[in-house]
Amino acid sequence: MGTRCEWKKPVIMQIIRHSEQTLKTALISKNPVLVSQYEKLDAGEQRLMNEAFQPASDLFGPITLHSPSDWITSHPEAPQDFEQFFSDPYRKIPSPDKRSIYIQSIGSLGNTRIISEEYIKWLTGYCKAYFYGLRVKLLEPVPVSATKCSFRVNENTQNLQIHAGDILKFLKKKKPEDAFCVVGITMIDLYPRDSWNFVFGQASLTDGVGIFSFARYGSDFYSMRYEGKVKKLKKTSSSDYSIFNNYYIPEITSVLLLRSCKTLTHEIGHIFGLRHCQWLACLMQGSNHLEEADRRPLNLCPICLRKLQCAIGFNIIERYKVSCGVDSVKRGKWLSE
Ligand SMILES: [Zn+2]
Ligand SMILES: [Zn+2]
């Protein structure tokens, strides 16, 4: 009697495959101004971007849907091509005096100071390579108490949670003069309002601030043994933050680091006005659950890359040369062939 682990095999339910013409128009557009802007990119840049509509490309592929709970099926949204992005009057463009992305950590990130510093160094370096041409700076880390945010113990999961909107207000007040945006990161879980169970993150595009929690990215959050459960909530005053002292934080593993790099760059992408990608497999695809988020690639598809390039103004080839992720090594090799 053989038992096989069939469930381990991913079942591809649907492939979203657009025609070459659709992808070409989404990338280059039919607007003569944008066409000539595209033609001004240098040959190497265009060669890479044109891979978007090569059906046999080994760099970019179609989006695959694996379950009805995946983002595109459960959250129908209007797609955004390059031209729609370009002509969006509300999108944020880094002005010459506002070209810094600030990262503010809230509460402890790692179990020791050294781990925290190492982790934030990786995150910062990653964002620098990703948003090539902008500065990425760290604000002095603050304890939860400094934000004066509301907090609670979640009745279902029994973990500590802080109020996302309060944190956004705090970040807005602290936003430096030269900031394009300020992103807060924390290992404490977030909730957006009393009636909600939790939220991974929240951002205000008009204020250029965002807060993202990596609490649920540890390997143990959904396990029975999760140590962040608060056994019994002593009646504490809303200004007594001592409950956060020595509160459980997940171990920083490579998986947690990878997930946080992806989340941070995806969310900062939204602050630039990039909407969820429905063209090709891409970092900007929406995700409804952790498994779908893990499936998303680290890199942007050419359509989203052109949006970012147009906002920041980097040279696409140079950007790939400075970054050192696995994907970029692959690309670097391809470009030098
Ligand atoms: Zn998103
Ligand atoms: Zn994309």
Task: Give structural notes.
With 337 residues, the protein is of the alpha/beta class. It folds into 2 domains: 14-91 and 274-324, no CATH class; 100-270, Collagenase (Catalytic Domain) (3-Layer(aba) Sandwich), CATH 3.40.390. Helices cover 34% and strands 13% of the residues. The chain is built from 12 helices and 10 strands. It has helices at 20-28, 32-39, 43-49, 71-74, 82-86, 113-130, 164-174, 254-271, 290-295, 302-312, 316-322, 326-336; strands spanning 14-16, 63-65, 100-106, 135-138, 151-153, 160-163, 179-186, 189-191, 201-204, 209-213. The strands form 3 sheets. Strands 4-3-7-10-9 form a 5-stranded mixed sheet, with helices on both faces. Strands 5-6-8 form a 3-stranded mixed sheet. Strands 1-2 form a two-stranded antiparallel sheet. Helix 1 packs parallel to helix 10 and helix 6 (113-130) crosses helix 8. It is globular and about 65 Å long. It starts with 13 loop residues before the first strand and ends with a helix. Bound molecules: zinc ion (2 copies). Residues 266, 270, 276, 286 line the site of one zinc ion. The site of one zinc ion has 9 residues, from helix 10.
